[in-house]
């Protein structure tokens, strides 16, 4: 390609690219352009580049702020690309360093669903890890888990029939009070009508030791059973469906830091 045949801006770019090897004056003379024209173009180009860098810095800073200081170069570049801004990860990294943008270390969040530090009555462990039964509605086991939403945590209580391993009762609320587990058991009662003598097993959480639940059990002739202190294996069955459904995830809050929880509202869950 003959540079002499190109428009001035192309010749100016050629001069800039070779200015370290040859003098600007010689290159301008050979390419038949004026030095004033070249320096004017160079100044305009530099100004345009500076404006572009400034705008890019503002975008990157805003994306980083919205991400709560969690986005690295890969996700910032992806966010820019989604808005039609093409930029390399190297350039994003360079701007991040210039602006002093350092990602925060992600914390692990764990919601404590079992509070066994209370003075409420504790039932003996009648189930004693005997998780197999010969007939339905002979023993139920219960547990509480949690689901993240943008409105806050949503708590889910379930009761599972040991015979079928099916969820026979459940309840959801924005709290972990005694009503949560009692309402779930009420659902199981109206669905299955278990007879007196049913063993109702759970951990030692205050919800299960509450007067509300104990009264409900006494009214129907059900027998309460509780796990030993600090022994999750005594109540292992109800946790299995949670893991299978990816609900029982103790580090669930560490996912999607920017996008947030999967549900905008509790009712959507």
TrEMBL record:
Gene3D superfamilies xref list: Ribonuclease H-like superfamily/Ribonuclease H
Top-level taxon in the UniProt lineage: Bacteria
Positions of the Integrase catalytic domain: 132-237
GO terms under biological process: DNA integration
Gene Ontology MF term list: nucleic acid binding
NCBIfam families cross-referenced by the UniProt entry: transpos_IS3
Name assigned to this protein: Integrase, catalytic region
Organism: Magnetococcus marinus (strain ATCC BAA-1437 / JCM 17883 / MC-1)
């Amino acid at each position: 390609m003959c540079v002499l045949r190109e428009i001035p801006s192309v010749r100016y770019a050629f001069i800039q690219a070779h200015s370290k090897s040859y003098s600007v004056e010689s290159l301008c003379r050979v390419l038949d352009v004026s030095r004033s024209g070249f320096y004017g173009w160079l100044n305009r180009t530099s100004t345009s580049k500076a404006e572009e860098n400034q705008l890019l810095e503002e975008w990157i800073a805003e994306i980083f702020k919205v991400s709560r200081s969690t986005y690295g170069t890969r996700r910032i570049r992806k966010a820019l690309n989604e808005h039609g801004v093409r930029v390399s990860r190297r350039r994003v990294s360079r701007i991040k360093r210039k602006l002093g943008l350092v990602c925060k270390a992600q914390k692990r969040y764990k919601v404590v669903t079992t509070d066994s530090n209370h003075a409420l009555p504790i039932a003996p462990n009648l189930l004693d890890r005997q998780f197999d039964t010969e007939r339905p509605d002979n023993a139920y086991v219960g547990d509480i888990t949690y689901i993240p939403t943008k409105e806050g945590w949503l708590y889910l209580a379930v009761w599972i029939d040991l015979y079928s391993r099916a969820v026979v009762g459940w309840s959801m609320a924005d709290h972990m009070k005694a009503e949560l587990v009692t309402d779930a058991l009420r659902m199981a009662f109206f669905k299955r009508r278990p007879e007196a003598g049913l063993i109702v097993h759970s951990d030692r959480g205050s919800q299960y030791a509450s007067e509300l639940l104990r009264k409900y059990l006494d009214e129907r002739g059900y027998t309460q059973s509780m796990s030993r202190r600090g022994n999750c294996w005594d109540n292992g069955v109800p946790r299995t469906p949670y893991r299978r459904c990816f609900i029982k995830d103790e580090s669930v809050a560490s996912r999607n830091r920017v996008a947030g929880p999967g549900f905008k509202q509790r009712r959507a869950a």
